[in-house]
Amino acid sequence: MNNNHFSQLLTIFHNRMAPEEGYLAGYGAIINTYDLQVPLPDMLSLISRKHKRYKTAEWMVFTPRYMPEDTLMGHLTFALKYEGIELAILKKLFEKLDINEISRAIADEPTGQYSRRIWFLYEWLLDRKLDLPDLAIGNYIDLVDDSIQYASRKEIETSKRHRIRNNLPGERGFCPMIRKTALLEQYIELGLSQQVKKVIGKIHPDVMARAAAFLLLKDSKASYAIEGERPPQNRAQRWGRAIGQAGQKSISKEELIRLQQIVIDNPRFTKMGFRKQEGFIGEHDRRYGTPVPDHISAKWEDLDMLMDGLIFTDQKLERDDSFDAVLAATLIAFGFVFIHPFVDGNGRIHRYLIHHVLLRKKYVSEGIIFPVSAIILERLNEYRSILEHFSRSRLDLIEWKPSKDNNVEVLNNTIDLYRYFDATKQAEFLYSCVRETIEQTIPEEVDYLEKYDLMKTYLDDHFQMPDKTVALLVRFLEQGEGHLSERARSKEFQALTADEVREIENKFQRIFEI
Q: Could you state a single Gene Ontology molecular function term (predicted)?
């Protein structure tokens, strides 16, 4: 276990520029020493030779007094203490270590809190028991430090052997993690769920019902638009009705297949159900037809285990009312789209799962659908960037060759790339979308409908116009920024006098504050 070459002095690591010269510590040092083929953590640790502790977007910089003992246990302890739990790195490391060597290292300090965590994680990740006696004394400690990462608070399993409370948010089959950042804490402290419930409670039920119907259809159309599709109205409405039922049924493999059947209404050219072939997102070389992947999906042989793990974690987080709903939606919805279990329909079902989790965890009132897809569509480049953030770091770790049908054939074991990942960036993005929906989109739609009703009441009282004509007139006035075009005056609204048109325009401008 002793190795005097963990802490390398450097200014760049895996193409990531350090903010200053310093020594790698924690997971970075372990990855470097053992040449672990894993995605690099979003945050790395550096021990500076200066006396200033600070953070950048990709580095935590520590002063010299934080330098860990230059051994594996020293750097593992540092990692757990300051960087949290990185399951993918730990599993790759444990698979490389000699079982007797790690047993001896833990036996040197079996009751230490970090030794116990390492011991538990070794046995939990590898499903392999070390030749060590159960602990008989010592207080129970949490596995996850919830000052660093978000953890479960309900249904926590205790391990008498290690005297550990396993508060991981998932299970061995699927357990992404989210780091506790200042931005996420700000979002959570806003209490957006209570805000939107309070706002909705003050709105006339009829207005809210109409707003909900509009937002539902808007979200459905946006979800197709994100995929580059323009569905006919009836197809968008059909998917909108499915979104409207989100949260009513628990997620299961059968339910996911049912949703795919709604998304893909013409399955003649699509193999339905869970994939029985590999998959990728990207292009084909124009000359040779070979794959040029941006994202390689989980191996189809791994889908049963991955989906069982995802569904178990979804149900666990649903029961844990202390685990933030938006964070839970991030883990499940993004976990699903990264796995990409279907040949087609993954993107829309991924965004459906956001609605599903928010409703199951009662983040929003029943019947209200956040138009998250509409916000994503407005921020499409940012959305693609956070998807690529996951995929890009994994492409070089996946060994593949083109198959005979110009698909990819994955040659190595990749399951852990999809079950253990850091979803912090995805959580920050999703929370920003939810905030925009609550603070802008819903209030703006309700405000519009209330103004529309005032305009309609005025037109009903003075001109007795049919609803269809009112809708047409308002649309023309919106297009003309409060003025009716000469074409509309001479055609659809030729029955109005010039004075009446001016009166209507003035009323519209006052109501809509133009």
A: ATP binding
